[in-house]
Design brief:
It is elongated and about 100 Å long. The strands form ten sheets. It has a 22-stranded antiparallel β-barrel. The chain has a five-stranded mixed beta sheet with strand order 1-2-4-5-3. By secondary structure, it is mainly beta.
Length: 973
Amino acid sequence: MAQAQDVPAASSPVAPVAPEGTITTAAPQQIPPAASDPATEPASTDIVVTGSRITSGGFTAPTPTTVIDANAIAANAQPNVFTTIAQLPSLQGSTGTSTGTFSTSSGAQGLSSFSLRGVGAIRTLTLIDGQRVVGANVTGVPDVSLFPQILIKRVDVVNGGASASYGSDAVGGVVNFITDTRFKGVKGNLQGGITTYGDNEQVLLQLAAGTSLLDDRLHIVGSTEYAHEDGIKGGGLGTDLASGRDWFRQTTLINRNVFDDGSPQYLVRDYSQQYSYTKFGLITAGPLQGTAFDQSGNPFQFQYGSNGVPSRNASGSVIGCFPGSCLGGDLSGNVDVGRSLQSRLQRVANYGRIGFDWAPDNEVYVTANIGQVKTSNEPIGGMNRPNLTIQCANPFVPASVQAACTTAGITNFQYGTSNAALGNTQVYTDRRQYRFVAGAKGRQSVAGSDWTYDMYYEHGTNYSNIDVNNVMLSNRFNQAINATTLNGAIVCANPVARANGCQPLNIFGGNPSQGALGYIMPDNGPYQRTRQTQDVISVNFSGSPFSLWAGPVSFAFGSEFRHEFYTVRADPYGAGTSATPNTPDYPADPTLLPGGNNWYAGNYKNGSGAYSVKEAFVETNVPILNSEGTGRAAINGAIRVTDYSTSGTVWAWKIGGTWDLPIDGLRLRGVTSRDVRAPNLSELFAAPTTTTLPGFFDPFRNVNVLAIQNTIGNSALTPEIARNTTAGIAFSGSSWLPGLSLSVDYYHIKIKDVISSLGTGDIVNLCFQNILPETCSAFNLNNPAGPNFINVQAFNLASIDTNGLDIEASYRWRRPLGLPGSFTLRALATNIRKFATDTGLPGTIPIDSAGVNSGNTPDWKWLATQTYANDDFSLLLQERWFSDGVFGSQYVECSPGNCPVSTNNRPTIDNNFMPGAFYMDVGGTYNVTKQVTGYFKVDNMFNKEPPKSPNFVNPALYDIAGRTFRIGVRFSM
């Protein structure tokens, strides 16, 4: 696909070009030649290097950069260029259509954003033509789906810190999309795809056009594209996934809640059955425990797994089973398979650019990006409600059960249901981006030397709407199930609820009335309306004013101002009536909580915030060696001062160098830097974000409960500070071994004052085990006054320490075995040797997640391609692989009778193995004419299924769609 290298000369800053065979070693696919006309490109040796602001001829950046050209993007034949870039081994933890699908409130569904080195998308800077892009989420990360993809010439991936050059967020690195600003002609792409299961149907339509007028001084370029991915819906309830997929095993990490009996505390088991609810209802405690109900409401004896026998006491435990769950038995009420495996996505992206050369090598321009991305997903099956109390006198209770109540001498019983009859919740997101840039760039002679300039103003606005359908109001549900008989009719027992429209709900079985459904799930569900704006003014200069003994000394300097703002508004039932007043669509209801959090899921809040950034930088490149005996060497350094309106002044810097050894083709490179990331709008000012946690384990009572996670902002946060070091050796361009390129780079990133928060399970366990009693006030898992909750807030407490190796190699064999064309072998690999996260809290220890395959940082990850291409056709084989790993490195794996005491820091487990995966893809092209090329691609050719996981599935690493077929045609005129 691409080769990490020191980017060579591209062209002038007015119209950067990627000469074929110099920037990337990707084999040229036979794509219709509708590229820029070389004759119109300015003749210049200046370059644009992502990761540096220096644009002088001959400059080589010390930071390793992987470059993916347009041919490699086309060969991978994805409906979204995001997928192609995210396959690079150094990108770990990127988000896309298969991540965030289990969430209602995150707003990240279908959000395509990159994460380098596994440090998160918020620590990876994504640019278009070296310019910032307004965020598509309050975390500040852009959505690549909104980018003008058909006009991409190349994508530069800088594998190292670049804050000294680009400012905040470039801690893990930079992903820079370079567009073709001088495109001439017309080109298009039509593509369709489908999985082997007959779902996730895909359509991609792309069209671009460009021309030059006024003696080649006026350049007009535009593009439009439409893409639709149908997604993979949830599978209902039980264990059957969508469209016949059969890899789901309801694997669960069972907490025995016993620490010192010589056996593992945690057990990994398949086909786990929670016995606090079932599909159409289950009595879960007391003398009638084990009585379940079918869809018609008829009682029957529930089939517990593990040969379990209900204790029929007040605790609701099941003899022979684990706390909260059994193994096997009736699994029809399990809710996990109701989750979407992949979000449905529809995107439209429009781009236009007008540039005018007011003088040779000097241009003024304006650009416009207008796009929309719509997604939808189902976060979980049903709306399970355990731990309900039902009165025996409830008229919906079958007569036989009422009689059993009388016999047992009870007036109520504990009850749980998956609420299968209510259907699945649907989440719809709609992101609209309006981005406009006006700028000027070029070259002028100053004091006898050429200086380039690049200045622009960018204004971007992003509107994000989230709407949730088919979700219950929890308090209305509670009122509706509390039924009684009045004047011979079944009504809600609470007269206040009746006066406000309450309709009784029969939760014994699966036949609720339409009136009850309309009451508990009104047509107007939760909503969130977010508006974000970004304004950037940037001015940069670069030149070589003088020379030393080894060559010209280059300088770059500049400044930038940036303002970020957001505001969000939500519905009154979620946000509270003091924040959002009631309306006719959301009328006042005294049975609801006035402070909000009334929805089962999707309790959005109001909020707003803004900050400003002022920056200035200077960078220099000083050659120190230049002879046949010593080779060529240069030192590169930069410093940037940044003033944040929220947290004051911070400094970033870098120092590094390159040395082309006297040995032909061999180069040493290295750089160390101090990088920064300021807290984003979400971390600083976000109104509480809520996440519904069904089946959360309460260790105090040994039961599974429904809880809400509340995440709130912290305006006292300060910037994260990182130290980033890379050092490596590269071999390429040798006259004695042409076609071969090799590189090995070591990297080390240490981030302190990391903005992070404890997970909900850690908060509860640190209290339960009396390790950190301060966390006890952050949750209530048995809250009679409202929903159970766990509060989560971020602080500058944690640190991240990661290091590893990047290895890349490619070889191009021209005219293999005398055949026309070329054969190219290519491989990229990343080895994560360490990824330690320290929460910074007393009583805790660092957790090394290198090799944790339930996350996104496997020990090894590689990508390899083999391509044969000639003038008529091309064939591509691609292999993707990552190594075996574990569920979590904190666990101590042991067997019964041999386990040490299990602690919060080092819990014991019986199985801590999570296998890696190997995927093979195949593709090819055929040139029908010089202007028309047909192509095909098959991803995951052997239909490799994801392994079992206690977290349902990990789409960050594993392919969950299955074998996917794509065909298409590209054309040019």
